[in-house]
Design goal:
The chain is of the alpha/beta class. It has 20 helices and 18 strands.
């Protein structure tokens, strides 16, 4: 990245209103970052923290200063898929993986990404995304196979495999798709011949006829970059001359460079066992994953059977036919049947993991996995924030706290970076965020639901405060609707919020509209279910942090109160125009989360950085209008209320550096309102 030191105004050069308030309050020791222009490149010098915090930097200005010499926290981030499989097989640790297909409707991509997040919480080893030739699968369209797979790996942090087929594609087109997949961070390909499109069986001129040709091409053009999977057919491919002939073609695909096999669906465990035995007898030794299909409806079963050209065993037909019009009964039977099949497979020594065809409906699959004991109810967080699975982000271990509830936005705004800080934070340039419409950045809730949560009609700024209070309390609003998200957080509250819920409710009721916070933590085990992260045997620490919007009047009193907390509390206050003030020493970043683990240096994954805050404030203010205000007609009173908050409120962050003591930030807010309510002497 091209980085230069920014211009920083001398202390005291702030906006007139903030500067006047600061002088009246007697606050003189200030560092004030300028309103940052979009073209400015940011600081690359690591900077010492200047306080009791763990050090964030040294004196080097080279890129090497970003690097940690200690081992990474999560070895799996550095392993390729076949290495993860090998390690699991050696340890006897069974895994599961999930298949999804690109959505068919325009509004469905956001729902599918939400499904990725929910299913990802269970700990799949990988997911895969099918290739839909009729939907421009290699394009940048929201519903393309390439876009969905790229979103899964980059924004959901999932190890992802992209299907790719031969039919209707030239060699040049396939090569272009593979280069694009590599650029987007995809490292795994399921190579398929594919089903004919519009009855066209012949390969495109210059294209490939069979999956083995595609495997050979990938290895020739990309060497060992991609892990390659191929399909296996436990009863033989329906177009093969014989079962033995199909096995011979499978052996050719493995010999050409395939790393593992996923089978087509089947209904009886013995079918899979015979297939594995036959593969072993002809020298196929790579992992073979059974493809598990859950019967979830009569029509979907008929459709799948027609496509796969498989026979449904009579014993299953005898159960299904009498209940074919009862979807609930079929779903229950399908789950029980899948659990029984998986138990029989897992009891053998032939199955390293299970691959589920979810049909984009994860609830039934989740239930099966829970009954099998394979669903990770409480997966260990490798870091306090959601990681990306893009290979170039493997060394990323530090982020500003501001995007804690919008990790997909942070990843989007930093996607052009070539390197990422792994040990010390420095402030490179952030990309501009104009694409609020992107399906992975906007709320997954439809407009009608957002209006029910945030108010179909706002009457005052107090009605806005009520939305924040209902989000925190979990109690239904006046419409009888639970507020499950805000523009700054499209998901339920973090578990650690429960540790300060009453305090947050109290300040929000008074017009301090919080959008980000964390409690102070002093040496809790890394296994702690609420605040823990990182490998076992470690201890984690946090400084109390509070970020909120509030009125000009409240900020005036806050600046006076902060004088008596000057040595303990770091603050940064900014308005929508960029007028701002901070007491951060020399604009240095402040480590607010860190962990100590056996055999490693101190890891400092979360910082409060004054320079990054100036980029974040643009996004934070814009969300008032883009996500909330635009729900209403342009000239409506509701729109005007949101616009007034956007134009006149301030964004504030506070850090209590004394993590050993009780959090003082609540007292800071209490003192602020006490000052506001004090009678004015004539």
């Amino acid at each position: 990245m091209n980085q230069q030191a920014p211009e920083v105004l001398p202390a005291g050069h702030s906006c007139p209103s903030l500067g006047t308030w600061a002088l009246k309050a007697g606050i003189m020791s200030l560092s004030v970052p300028p309103s940052i222009s979009r073209n400015s490149a940011m600081v690359n010098e690591p900077r010492g923290n200047g306080g009791p915090n763990p050090s964030l930097g040294g004196t080097e200005s080279s890129k090497e200063s970003w690097r940690c010499s200690s081992p990474g926290l999560d070895p799996e981030r550095h392993e390729r898929l076949r290495e993860k499989m090998k390690r699991r097989m050696e340890s006897g640790d069974k895994w599961f993986s999930l298949e999804f297909f690109p959505p068919r409707k325009a509004q469905d991509p956001a729902n599918l990404i939400s499904e990725f997040d929910q299913m990802g919480a269970g700990g799949p080893l990988f997911i895969d995304v099918t290739w839909r030739p009729t939907e421009d699968p290699g394009s940048d369209k929201d519903r393309s196979s390439m876009t969905i797979a790229s979103t899964a790996v980059n924004y959901c942090g999932l190890e992802t495999m992209l299907h790719m087929t031969c039919y209707c594609q030239s060699q040049e087109e396939i090569t272009g798709h593979l280069h694009k997949a590599k650029r987007l961070g995809l490292k795994n390909i399921l190579a398929l011949s594919g089903d004919p499109v519009d009855g066209q069986r012949e390969a495109k001129e210059g294209g490939f006829h069979y999956a083995v040709d595609l495997v050979e091409h990938i290895r020739k053009e990309f060497g060992d970059y991609f892990d390659i999977c191929v399909a296996g057919y436990p009863k033989g491919h329906p177009d093969a001359e014989s079962f033995e002939d199909d096995l011979k073609h499978l052996k050719e695909k493995v010999s050409a460079g395939a790393d593992f096999i996923i089978t087509q669906l089947f209904f009886e465990a013995d079918t899979f066992f015979r297939f594995v035995k036959a593969c072993s007898e002809i020298g196929i030794t790579c992992p073979i994953l059974p493809g598990i299909f859950l019967i979830q409806g009569y029509r979907s079963l008929q459709r799948i059977v027609k496509l796969s050209k498989l026979e449904v065993p009579q014993r299953i037909r005898d159960v299904i036919e009498p209940i074919k019009d009862n979807d609930d009964a079929i779903r229950i039977y399908g789950i029980n049947l899948a659990v029984s099949l998986c138990q029989e497979l897992l009891a053998s020594a032939l199955v390293p993991g299970l691959h589920f065809y979810t049909l984009n409906h994860g609830m039934a699959t989740t239930e099966v996995l829970k009954r099998l004991g394979m669903w990770a109810e409480d997966p260990r967080r490798p870091l306090p924030w959601a990681v990306s699975a893009h290979p170039k982000r493997r060394e990323e271990y530090v982020r500003p706290i501001f995007w804690a509830s919008r990790p997909k936005s942070y990843i989007y705004r930093t996607q052009e970076w070539d390197e990422f800080p792994s040990c010390r934070w420095s402030s490179p340039a952030f990309g501009e965020l104009k694409d609020h419409h992107l399906f992975f950045l906007k709320s997954k809730a439809p407009r009608e639901e957002l209006l029910r949560m945030w108010g179909e009609e706002l009457t005052s700024q107090e009605s806005v405060c009520e939305v924040f209070v209902h989000y925190l309390s979990g109690e239904p609003n006046r419409n009888g609707c639970q507020v499950t998200c805000l523009p700054w957080s499209d998901k339920p509250l973090a578990a650690e919020t429960s540790l300060m819920k009453e305090e947050l409710l109290r300040v929000n009721r008074r017009g301090v509209l919080t959008i980000n916070s964390q409690p102070n933590v002093n040496g809790r085990p890394s296994s702690d279910p609420v605040v823990g992260w990182g490998p076992s045997g470690g201890f984690v620490f946090q400084k109390a942090y509070l970020e909120f919007f509030t009125s000009r009047e409240t900020v005036g009193a806050l600046l006076q109160v902060l004088k008596k907390y000057e040595l303990r509390v770091n603050y940064h206050i900014v308005d929508v125009k960029g007028d701002n003030i901070t007491n951060a020493p020399k604009l240095q970043p402040n480590a607010v989360t860190w962990g100590i683990f056996p055999g490693r240096e101190i890891i400092q994954p979360t910082v409060v950085d004054p320079v990054s805050f100036m980029f974040w404030k643009d996004e934070a203010f814009a969300l008032w209008v883009e996500q909330w205000g635009k729900l209403y007609d342009e000239e409506s009173p509701s729109r005007m209320i949101i616009q007034d908050i956007h134009d006149n409120y301030f964004l504030v962050n506070l850090v209590d550096n004394e993590f050993l003591l009780d959090n003082c930030l609540w007292q800071v807010i209490e003192d602020t309102f006490e000052l506001l309510n004090r009678p004015i002497l004539q």
